[in-house]
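Bumping with the actual sequence this time:
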Amino acid sequence: MNESDRELLLTARRVAPMAPVLLRAGPTSALLVDGDLRTIRCNGVEVVRRIYVAVRDLDWNTLPGEMSNLNIVSNANSFVVRFTQRHSMGKVDFEWTALISGDERGHITYVMEGEALGDFAYAKIGICVHHSVEGFRGQPFAGAAPGGRVTGLLPDMIGPQIHLDDGTDLPLFDPFDQLSLSHEGGGSVRFVFAGDLWEMEDQRNWTDASFKSASTPASLGYVHHARSGKRIEQRVEVSSKGFREADATASDALVIGAPTGFEVAAIGLCIAQPDVPLSSAARDVLVGIGPAHLRVDIDLVESPEALIAPALHRSNELGAPLEIALHVPRPSERQPALARFAAEIEGHAADVVSVLIFGEGEESTLPDTTVDVVKALSLVISATFISGTNIYFNELNRHRLSKGAADGLVWSINPQIHAVDEISLLENLEAQPDSVLSARTLWPDASLHVSPVTLRPRFNAVASTGEDFSLGSIPWNTDPRQTTLFAAVWTLGSASALVHSGVDSITYFEDVGARGVVEASVRIYSVEDFPSVLDTAFPCAIVLADLCELRGAQVLDLEPHEKLAVLALRHGNGQSILLGNLSRESAQVRIEAGVPSCRVRVLDVSNVERATQAFNEFIRARSELTTKDGVLTVTLDSYAYVRVDFEP
């Protein structure tokens, strides 16, 4: 790799910094990030997670905007922000101006005045408000609209989005133009909307940690049309009261408690291309990770019997059984397809650990589909049969079908259904446990599996036009951050969130390639678009290797740390703590180890290139560190990952 390639790689792995601006208005504060108001707090308590304008095309892609004419006037007790933003992609061309203000009372107003610069169809244009889940879940709300008042409690368990036969989705409650939400701490926040009606959905269905109020109710239809010159003007006013000053003191001590009763789940990988042989370098990395299983998608609708043999070969090559995601045809064509598959897989019972059952045209697996697959395959393989959805928890929650003959349920996760920025991706970690806990409540006798977890969506589940959408020269389902330290610590945050909620298995990413854990032998994308080194591990591979090594370890309780992803474990050789810095700022943590020394391994920007190129050597390496009176102090640089091992 030449010096130019190396600098491009390291720049990408640092993740380009954003420049949030802190705004204050009386007792209220907010961060301005790329035109959005983020983390609005009253007396230190988060009362709103985000306010922004979304422009979405007919495939529900959120179109990026180009900002201009930004002007910020801010002092200790008030602020005024103005800017222009234009969203021009495909057939959509929309420009709007923002006027965002906050006064000394702590009241915030967000105004959007926009105009269509051409004729186009769209799915949604307007102001969205993300409401915090913590503090508001299970608490009273009161809304008002021209049709009357609506009252109730915000859902604690994830509230379903019901899809009607006419193609519309039911909100959590009737549309409104005023809304008041009560906080468990005693305060309340009030919203007054203008320019449209708003309605609320529970975004935890897609593992986004918020309730969302969005303009233009679904009952008005999905497709909307704008003629050149059409004006869209909206406004939201936010005011809070009754919030007492939050305790601003934060401890850097990591308080580890007793076992939670959960263990580190079986963690596997997806096979990207079963029929493409592995290079020796990729094989060495994957064997070093030691996945518990390998997911292969077999689509019997397309009759891909040719993939079964190479998938079995990959399984034997890496010493990991298969998780077969079996996509079966409609009932009229199902039996012969299952018979052919059973004949192909017979004799390989030890090579298949589980079968995920997905029916053609079924958002969630119908009970009859599960029965057909179990009946056809249970005599030739002794696998766990799992029904559910190849899409998101939303589809499970929407239908709430019985698991029937299946042993467990499955759904997938990715953090970029609605937004692509790092703040949103990190917020997504907070909602991942809710999907498991809600599933456990609905199906208490089922094993629960998340497969797969990916950084980007694998496909657009709501696409309607068939048109390609890309934010650059790499495919829509590929994220250049796959190669970064950010992706590594996000992976730890995801695994920690899911195992703390008691999930039974997790499948992450692909094995080889731009959506995987090790780069392929042949460059598909330019290093400028996808900075990577051929046949070299990505940083997330190091995190996954540790998680796979520690499979079955007892998960220990701990106090959440605002800036860190943490997983504390007890196993036969002592205890291990995995730490990931979820911030661009350095973070320091004190660990009460109670022993004179610990073995430590650090992955950060200073050694990420060497670590990924010498993967197996690095994952075995440790440095001996002496504690001070049994306390170890660890400093983590931006998006750094640290493993600490000690014997109590």
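The tokens above came from a reply further down the thread. DSSP finds eleven helices and 36 strands in the chain.
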